[in-house]
Write a structure and sequence with these properties.
The chain has about 850 residues and is an alpha+beta fold. The protein is built from 26 helices and 31 strands. α12 (about 615-620) runs parallel beside α16, α16 (about 675-695) runs parallel beside α18 and α17 packs antiparallel against α18 (about 715-725). Bound molecules: arginine and zinc ion. Belongs to the peptidase M1 family.
């Protein structure tokens, strides 16, 4: 069944008050008594029966205003509880049973090793009690939890704890009241054995907020970093947006079994351990960075998501796009702005661009879905953030801030649509964004084709920009969109030209934000003394693909001199990409693959310059990912892509051998470990040098790697050495991997790194190894992190998942079908690795199609996975 935005109706009933009594009798069973105050919605359709959502809950009794209803007055089928002939305003009491331990879908209330946890977004609350489980129904919640005192000493829910006590049978209880009305997806409870640390934050208006962090016993030391991040994030939101925390108590709980990364439940954030626990010997720089950002992201949701929430799930980007944008701003402020931007764009290109070119392509605000859980996508999150960023660029930071103020002033406490944000920006800035709204409706990655002409006699330079967007499912043609194109012009010796457009009184400085609206736009720059090199789409001003016929000299100039750091990086990527694409064509045509000297020279200059900004150098020396190269091909041959990219790595490693080797020594980070931007940048660069050198497979480098692995005092250096050894078919490889597992087998998050390293291997035999690991005692399909580590990593392994004989696809089918009945949300994500079969060369295309057909034909397939295979095969 398809849910459509066009069918949205306001709810027929409202539920302003919810009182829940949750008795966690055993891991197998809980009794949930719900008291809902229900009112007919004056703005909704009139209906004589109340229809509540329900999923795997058995309803035992239903009462209205204290009187039990006879069985003929209510029916519960698998999806709804229907109560007939209800009055205009009444109290509804239901008593239901749920089964937390059997809840392997991990939506609703479920068990993990230390107790009971919950995840409700998007539609998990209906797995706890019958409810109008939609975000435009907002209620004040009072929750009483009962559980065994010894086994589950910590009892938590949203809001403030107002009472607690002991009860018979060695049990205890606690009552929580959340003063803020909220949608049901922000509901959360925890009953577990956990250690606690506490801290506090003083808001700028002088209130003291209690911060508590709960974690599996014995792991408190791994929570210190996240608590610091939380305080940074609270301060940052005050400084940047004037937004203060509105709670007396802010709790964070870590749990090892979790479908998502983290969840912003009001006052009770629940985090996947992977995104909150950090300690230098078990977490990499990347982990520290990601944890900091995720803690901030969830905190930022308190305003962008919780105070102003979504009307319905088509509006998911209202909260996610905006919150990812805020998270990106935070990361830019705390780390290197350029590196943060580069990483966000790489993310978009590896995740969102392929999605936009596949069968699941959808607009940032989708107009239809079967399962909303399939729409927690890169498009909604990453492209959604790009749309907010474009508005920020179009109106400028000051106006954008005013727009945010207005947005909160007008919509605090409401459930609204993506348009509320656009309208606020429009109103605060005076900018007409009517055409801009198309970004929320049209799917597909737009292309800009840029041509230029320099006229020496009139000293004018003309840029002609034509936009287009390829067809996507359900959208054969697109309208031109409104977007900012930030440009600069460089002289042939690398100076920035002041920009002045014909007909404009004042110049625009060195960088100009051009506004594109028409399909073709022409910009005439005057007083241009020399034929310039254009720097296009600075700071990645729009989520599009820019085509311009750069030659290698222009790209080298930009790489060396562009004042915009993002475009310096971009120039290096283009330089490499052009050669990689040529290489793939040569390889497929049976011609030798060769690379020019200028490539090695350009990369050599970046390396020679690396002292200035090692983190940037590491990004600039990283070749475009195989997925990004593949995306540029008419027809993907993943083996050819891999071989050509690997050949380029070896070419660079040979030519720059000495420079890589000395950089390896030069960029060591002596002293105690710290994940700050400076030292993590040095480690990134140094380990990148090591990886390049390892591609030559020399015994001396292998010893260097073995020594680094053995001597590492932090996980960043250990993992880099392990990954380098794992990529090489050498005698040191197996002992390194086995030794790593033996050392870390009791740290689940490190075991995940090991599984992932094995699954990402480019070496032959990996398919068999992954199958073997899927039966290893360290692996279980019941834990999402294990699945993501092994199966998820394998799914992006361009060589072995795409093995020419189809064995990788067969393994994916096997694992996905085993997982589907256990955890359909995670299974459908795994299956998405097969969805783009039409993009591949004929042999793989057929194998992938057959794999999808096998899944589609499987009896009892979940709705989640069914939607993905159905759309792929359509
Ligand atoms: N709202 C969460 C976040 O982005 C994500 C929840 C996703 N839910 C899920 N079942 N995967 O912060
Ligand atoms: Zn989010």
């Amino acid at each position: 069944t398809t849910v459509r935005l066009a069918d949205y109706r306001r709810p027929a009933f409202l539920i302003p008050e919810v009182v829940l009594d949750i008795d966690l009798q055993s891991e197998d069973e809980a009794r949930v008594a719900a008291t809902l105050s229900v009112q007919r919605n004056p703005d909704g359709a009139s209906s004589s029966s109340l229809v509540l959502d329900l999923d795997e809950v058995s309803v035992e009794s239903v009462a209205i205003d204290g009187k039990l209803l006879p069985p003929e007055r209510w029916q519960a089928d698998g999806r709804y509880l229907t109560v007939q002939d209800v009055p205009a305003s009444f109290r509804l009491d239901t008593v239901s049973r749920i089964h937390p331990r059997q809840n392997t879908k991990l939506m609703g209330i479920y068990t993990s090793s230390t107790g009971f946890f919950s995840l409700c977004e998007a539609e998990g609350f209906r797995r706890i009690t019958p409810f109008l489980d939609r975000p435009d129904v907002m209620a004040r919640y009072t929750v009483t939890l009962h559980a065994d005192r010894e086994r589950y000493p910590v009892l938590l829910a949203n809001g403030n704890c107002v009472a607690q006590g002991e009860e018979g049978g060695a049990r205890h209880w606690a009552r929580w009241v959340d003063p803020f009305p909220k949608p049901s997806y922000l509901f959360a409870v925890v009953a577990a054995r956990l250690d606690r640390s506490q801290d506090s934050f003083r808001t700028r208006s002088g209130r003291n907020v209690l911060l508590q962090f709960f974690v599996e016993p014995g792991k408190l030391d791994q929570g210190v970093f996240a608590l610091e991040s939380l305080k940074h994030a609270m301060k940052w939101d005050e400084d940047t947006y004037g937004l203060e925390v509105d709670l007396d108590e802010y709790n964070i709980v870590a749990v090892g079994d979790f479908n998502a990364g983290a969840m912003e439940n009001k006052g009770l954030n629940i985090f996947n351990t992977k995104l909150v626990l950090a300690r230098s010997d078990i977490s990499t720089d990347w982990d520290f960075n990601f944890i900091d950002r995720t803690v901030a992201h969830e905190y930022f949701h308190n305003w962008t998501g919780n105070r102003v929430t979504c009307r319905d799930w088509f509006q998911l980007a209202l909260k996610e796009g905006l919150t990812v944008f805020r998270e990106q701003q935070y990361a830019g402020d705390r780390y290197s702005r350029a590196v943060a931007r580069i990483q966000a764009v790489r993310n978009l290109r590896t995740g969102q661009f392929p999605e936009d070119a596949g069968p699941m392509a959808h607009p940032v605000r989708p107009s239809a879905y079967q399962q909303v859980s399939n729409f927690y996508t890169s498009t909604v999150y990453q492209k959604g953030a790009e749309l907010v960023r474009m508005m920020h660029t179009l109106v400028g930071p000051a106006k954008f801030r005013q727009a945010m103020d207005l947005y909160f002033r007008e919509h605090d406490g409401q459930a609204v649509t993506t348009d509320a944000l656009v309208a606020a920006v429009e109103e605060a800035s005076g900018e007409d964004l009517s055409q801009f709204r198309l970004w929320y409706e049209q799917s597909g990655t737009a292309r800009l084709s840029v041509r230029d002409q320099y006229d020496e006699t009139s000293q004018t330079y003309v840029l002609t920009v034509t936009q287009s967007c390829p067809p996507t499912p359900g959208q054969p043609t697109k309208k031109p969109m409104h977007m900012p194109l930030t440009v600069g012009l460089l002289t042939p010796d690398g100076r920035e030209l002041p920009l002045r457009l014909e007909g404009e009184k004042t110049g625009r400085g060195g960088s100009a934000v051009l506004s594109l609206r028409q399909e073709t736009e022409v910009f005439r720059f005057i007083d241009v003394p020399v034929p310039p090199v254009p720097s296009l789409g600075r700071n990645f001003s729009a989520p599009v693909i820019i085509g311009y016929p750069y030659d290698d000299q222009a790209l080298q100039l930009l790489l060396g001199y562009d004042s915009d750091a993002f475009n310096r990086w971009e120039a290096g990527q283009r330089l490499a990409m052009d050669l990689l694409l040529r290489g793939v064509a040569d390889r497929r045509a049976g011609r030798p693959v060769q690379f020019p000297d200028y490539l090695a020279e350009a990369f050599g200059r970046v390396l020679a310059d690396a002292q200035k900004d090692p983190a940037f150098a590491a990004e600039a020396l990283t070749l475009p990912a195989e997925i990004i190269i593949a995306e540029r091909l008419e027809e993907i041959d993943p083996q050819a892509v891999h071989e050509v990219r690997f050949a380029m790595r070896r070419f660079l490693a040979e030519r720059l051998h000495g420079a890589f080797r000395s950089a390896y020594d030069l960029f060591a980070t002596p002293g105690p470990y710290s994940p700050d931007a400076e030292s993590s940048g040095r480690r990134a660069l140094r380990n990148l040098c090591l990886a390049f050198l390892m591609d030559l497979g020399e015994a001396e480098t292998r010893s260097l790697c073995v020594a680094q692995l053995a001597g590492a005092t932090n996980m960043t250096d250990a993992m880099a050495a392990l990954a380098a050894l794992a990529s090489c078919d050498c005698p040191e490889r197996r002992p390194a991997l086995d030794g790593f597992y033996a050392k870390w087998k009791d740290e689940p998050l490190v075991v995940d790194k090991w599984l992932s390293t094995e699954a990402l291997s480019r070496l032959p035999g990996t398919v068999a190894r992954v199958r073997e690991l899927s039966r290893h005692p360290a692996f279980t399909l019941k834990n999402p992190n294990k699945v993501y580590a092994l199966v998820g990593s394998f799914g992006v392994n361009q060589v072995n998942f795409h093995a020419a004989d189809g064995s990788g696809y067969a393994l994916m089918v096997e694992l996905a079908l085993a997982l589907d009945p256990i955890n359909p949300q995670v299974a459908s994500r795994m299956v998405r690795n097969l969805e783009r079969y039409k993009r591949y060369e004929p042999a793989r295309r057929e194998l992938m199609r057959a794999a999808l057909q096998t899944i589609a034909a499987h009896p009892g397939l979940s709705r989640e996975t069914g939607e993905v295979v159905g759309k792929a095969l359509a």
